[in-house]
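> agent: user asked for a holo structure of the chain below bound to adenosine-5'-diphosphate. Plan: (1) validate sequence alphabet, (2) canonicalize SMILES, (3) run complex prediction with ligand conditioning, (4) return tokens. Step 1... ok. Step 2... ok. Step 3 dispatched.
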Amino acid sequence: MIHVTHLSKWFPNQPVLNRVSFSVDEGESLVVLGQSGIGKSVLLKTLSRLIEPDEGFAEIRTRNIGIVFQKNALFDSLSAYENLDFVMRERTRETAPARRNKIMNYLEWVGLAGSAHLMPNELSGGMQKRLAIARTLIVEPQVVLYDEPTAGLDPITSRLIAELILRLKKEAGSTLVTVTSDVQRAFQLGTKVGILVRTALGAELLMAGSPEEARASSDERIQQFLKGATRGPLTTKITASSESRNNLANKDFWDGDFF
Ligand SMILES: Nc1ncnc2c1ncn2[C@@H]1O[C@H](COP(=O)(O)OP(=O)(O)O)[C@@H](O)[C@H]1O
Ligand SMILES: [Mg+2]
């Protein structure tokens, strides 16, 4: 269903993705793990053609691709019901009664039937995520891309969201690509798992196989990521520029009342 070949993307100031290749069969669920800032969102945006790759190809055998953004991208001034109605009007030719019927079904499916009239800012984080998922799925995409679907949610809500994603996938028979930094959710959601690792040329994708194969992998980089170890072949850059250090040094709060 999805074939990605030697995909590279770089921005003027930095390389982001280097020769990323993978394929996902119809009905499969690929989860790509990676540290914050490594290029997970850039990868999904390239798959959904929101940005163009600099090299390589992303071929997807359908034009009906849905994406659930990390920050949900809900319409703040529309109610839950109206958020779904908006995309149905834009993307389908269904009559008002047919739309109403389908919207109520989808709200029911994600457990928001009683919240149809509420505005996004009146919903909890988990409810907003469920609404964002319903809004993406209501136009029945064959491929669904999830950008950190459980980021910022508590562990129980995260697990419930992942269960919902799997239930809706099964009912719709869709193909998923999820990017996340949450190892537990990756094991729950993925039929196969890959990890983005940083190199001087940008992030490269290491495919680790099924969740069981990933756990049993002898690759030190995969083991380090799965365990969240700070020491190992994967490095994290947390550095201040010398300019900001100088600014700090010039401030006199170090010997003031700051602490
Ligand atoms: N439109 C853009 N222009 C320039 N740099 C960008 C752009 N989008 C993302 N980046 C950079 O690409 C890198 C990867 O970003 P992103 O894919 O958002 O990371 P994450 O893995 O956290 O989702 C970051 O260093 C980010 O600053
Ligand atoms: Mg991101």
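> agent: step 4 complete. Summary for user: The pocket of adenosine-5'-diphosphate (ligand 1) is lined by residues 11, 16, 34, 36-42 (CB under 6 Å). Strands lie at 2-11, 14-24, 29-33, 55-60, 65-68, 143-147, 175-180, 192-199, 202-209.
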